[in-house]
TrEMBL record:
Keyword Transport set for record: no
Family that this chain belongs to: Belongs to the plant globin family.
Stored PANTHER family: LEGHEMOGLOBIN-RELATED (PTHR22924), NON-SYMBIOTIC HEMOGLOBIN 3 (PTHR22924:SF98)
Protein name: Globin domain-containing protein
Species assigned in the record: Daucus carota subsp. sativus
PROSITE patterns to which the protein is assigned, alphabetical: GLOBIN
């Protein structure tokens, strides 16, 4: 059964117990073999354009939430257009690639494949700059839209759910890895 939250990026698949993990009060499916196949296939297609897709991803975030720029020290006082910002481009690529690579390996490892120290540092940084759940929702929506635009012929509700689940697991793990997380 699907829960409609009035935001298509926030749809969550609810299922009954037995082997399901609990996430923020909702039971959601573990990452399946089918989801893994969809993520791997789409990432293999997108990988060659990761730098541009990463930039597109961040541009979407800033389009939806312009004030998010203030959370990035290298964007706060910059007059350089975002598309030309020399610090945003590598940051955007790194975040996009890490997110996608984590999704690809999620089922193989059964967990988010980023070192705990890295996740803890990421969580602490996000917490320090004031990232809250709503920011993660905007980021999730921007990620799914970026992927949808990158692979229009492959996009489907199943693809959306696969990438959404992978992102949700990454965020959940990052939050759990932050010692005094307020995110």
């Amino acid at each position: 059964m699907s829960m409609n939250t009035n935001n298509p990026a926030l749809d969550v698949t609810l299922i009954s117990s037995n082997g399901m993990r609990q996430t923020e009060g909702l039971e959601v499916k573990a990452f399946t073999e089918e989801q893994e196949a969809l993520v791997v296939k789409s990432w293999n297609f997108m990988k060659k354009d990761a730098a541009q897709l990463g930039l597109n991803f961040f541009l979407k975030i800033f389009e939806i939430a312009p004030t998010a720029k203030k959370m990035f020290s290298f964007l706060k006082d910059s007059d350089v257009p975002l598309e030309q910002n020399t610090k945003l481009k590598p940051h955007a690529r790194t975040v996009f690639v890490m997110t996608c690579e984590t999704a690809v390996h999620l089922r193989k490892t059964g967990k988010v494949g980023v070192k705990e120290s890295t996740l803890s540092k990421m969580g602490a940084t996000h917490s320090r700059v004031g990232v809250v759940d709503e920011h993660f929702e905007v980021t999730r929506f921007a990620l799914l839209e970026t992927i949808k635009e990158a692979i229009p012929d492959m996009w489907s509700p199943e693809m959306k759910n696969a990438w959404g689940e992978a992102y949700d697991q990454l965020v959940k793990t990052m939050k759990e890895s932050t010692p005094t997380s307020t995110v």
